[in-house]
Amino acid sequence: MNLTPIPLSAATMLALAVPLASGCAPPARHRAEPALAGLAEFEATLAAHDSATLALEDWCARGAIAPVAQVSATLVEAQVSARAGPATPHGLRAQLGAAAGEPLGFRHVRLDCGGVVLSEAFNWYRPALLTPEMNRALDGTRIPFGKIAAPLAYRRELIEARHGAAEGCPPGVVLSHRAQLRLPDGRPLALLVECYTGANLGR
After folding, report:
1. In the chain, N or C: fewer CB atoms in 10 Å?
2. pLDDT of residue 77
């Protein structure tokens, strides 16, 4: 049986050649799906905990990011915090329910699991609502705020979530949160800006 070749236009030949040249790669929208699915799962993990530290330890263990899923906080020098990071929130004292003369604390840390930085966090808080031991631990250890203040049984309220970096977050951030911690009686304890890095998604 004789087969008669079917002539192809130049446009058709080019359309057929592109998948071959690119190794038959799937469309971009399919390639992006695993990252989006991972981000959604990561957000669900954060939402399931009142402590971002515990959420990151959970995520670190599930993703085998480090042999031991323990999160540590590295304090960022004060002069670095003054040059970078989010500006002090407008009306900070009102948001924290702090009187005019009440001292406020500030902590800028990088949270890592096994040396892999998962978050850069900015925390404005009320030392008067913490015990003296808690304040000493904040000043002199690498223990994250969430673990130190855990005995107060605070609850976390998410104010805003953004995919990508919020203003003041460093490069490479895939998710930004602004949140508040409240004591069981409703008093505000801390105001947070959290910048979650691409390392959470294996980037």
Report:
1. N
2. 77
Q: Would you state the pLDDT for residue 21?
A: 40
Task: Identify whether the C-beta of residue 195 lies closer than 8 Å to the C-beta of residue 155.
Answer: no
Of 156, 157, 180, 158, the residue nearest 94 (C-alpha):
180
Question: Which structure tokens are listed for 200?
Answer: 């959470």
Q: Exposure of 203 by Cβ count < 10 A (0-12 exposed, 13-18 middle, 19+ buried)?
A: exposed
**How high is the mean pLDDT in each 10-residue block of the chain (203 residues)?**
44 40 43 66 96 96 94 82 75 95 95 97 97 96 96 97 94 96 98 97 91
CB atoms within 10 A of CB 194: 23
Going across the sheet that includes 105-113, the strands are 71-75, 105-113, 116-125, 188-197, 173-182, 155-163
The predicted pLDDT at position 87 comes to 86
- For residues 46 and 55, the answer to whether their CB atoms sit within 8 Å is yes
Tokens of 2: 């004789």
SS3 70: coil
E strands within the chain? 71-75, 105-113, 116-125, 155-163, 173-182, 188-197
* Residues composing the chain: 203
How many C-beta atoms lie closer than 10 Å to residue 134's C-beta? 18
Q: What is the DSSP letter of 99?
A: -
